[in-house]
Every structure is written in structure tokens, then in C-alpha cells.
Amino acid sequence: MVFFNYATMQMAAKIVYYGPGLCGKTTNLHYIYQKTSSQSRGEMVSLETETDRTLFFDLLPIDVGVIGGFNTRLQL
Predict the structure, then answer these.
(1) Which residue pairs from 40-48 have beta carbons closer than 8 angstroms and sit at least 24 positions apart in sequence?
(2) Residue 31's Cα: distance from chain center in Å?
(3) Between vectors from CA 44 to CA 38 and to CA 49, what angle results, nearest 5°?
(4) Do residues 11 and 70 make contact, with C-beta atoms less than 8 angstroms apart?
(5) Could you give the residue ranges of the DSSP H alpha helices within 1-76?
(6) Do the Cβ atoms of 75 and 59 come closer than 8 Å?
(7) Phi–psi pair at 66, nearest 5 degrees
(8) CB neighbours of 24 closer than 8 A, spacing ≥ 6?
(9) Count of structural domains, the chain
(10) Across the chain, how many H-helices and E-strands are there?
(11) Is the Cβ–Cβ distance between 17 and 75 less than 8 Å?
(12) Measured between alpha carbons, how far is residue 38 from residues 4, 26, 41, 42 in Å?
């Protein structure tokens, strides 16, 4: 889902990972976090339980620069 704000020329795209437990969704986000420069990534939010499974969600915001005149941010 993509949100456009024409007043501030910002675009935010939400990319949702969906799948069964223990299939690698959180691991994939951790890998992307490690490979992304610290200037473009935000703080990764992860709610984990005692059994190391994610209970609710992970969130990883990434600034990808200007696309089509819009400052673009991905929310993984």
C-alpha cells in the first residue's frame, strides 16, 4: 500500500510480510537492517517473546531517497 502526501512531496510504501510461524520473516528483516546504511534506516522495532518468536509485528522503516520527485520511505 502506498500513501502520497502532495503537500510535503512524501511517499510512504508499506510492505507486509505474511506467512506461517518460523518461516523467516523476522530473519529477513534483520538481514535487510544489517545490510542497509545507518543513514537511511530507522530503528527496527521487534516484539519478541521468550521463545524467540515474534508475537505481533516487526517494523523497519527505510528512506530510499527521491523517486519521481517524492521523498520515499519504505515501511517493512
Answers:
(1) 40/64, 40/65
(2) 12
(3) 150
(4) yes
(5) 25-35
(6) yes
(7) -95, 125
(8) none
(9) 1
(10) 1, 6
(11) no
(12) 25, 19, 5, 8
Distance CA 19, CA 52 (A): 16
Structural domain including 32 reads 2-75
Pairing of strands 10-14, 70-75: parallel
Residue corresponding to grid cell 502526501: 5
What pLDDT is attached to residue 46? 74
Across 14-49, b (16+ Cβ under 10 Å) vs e yields eeeeeeeeeeebbeebeeebeebeeeebeebebeee
pLDDT recorded at residue 44: 83
CATH number for the domain that contains residue 44:
3.40.50.300
57 is written with which cell numbers? Answer: 509485528
**For residue range 21-53, what is the model confidence (pLDDT) as tens digits?**
778 888 888 898 899 998 998 888 777 666 666
